[in-house]
Amino acid sequence: MVTNAVSWDATMRAAVWTGPGRVDVRDVPYPRVPDGWLLLRVEYGGICGTDLSIVAGKHPRAAAPLVLGHEIVGIVVRTGPDGPPVGTRVVVEPLISCGRCWACRHQESHVCRELELFGIDAAGGLADHMAVPADRVVPVQPGVPVRRAAWAEPLAVAVHAVARAQVRGGESVLVFGAGPIGILVALVARKAGAARTVVVEQKASRRKIAADCGFETVPDASTRRRGSAPPTDPKGRTSSSTRQDIPTSPACCPPRPARPARSCWWPSTGIRWPSTCEPCVSASSACSAPGSTPATTSPRP
Ligand SMILES: [Zn+2]
Ligand SMILES: [Zn+2]
Question: What is the mean pLDDT of residues 114-126?
Answer without folding.
Answer: 96
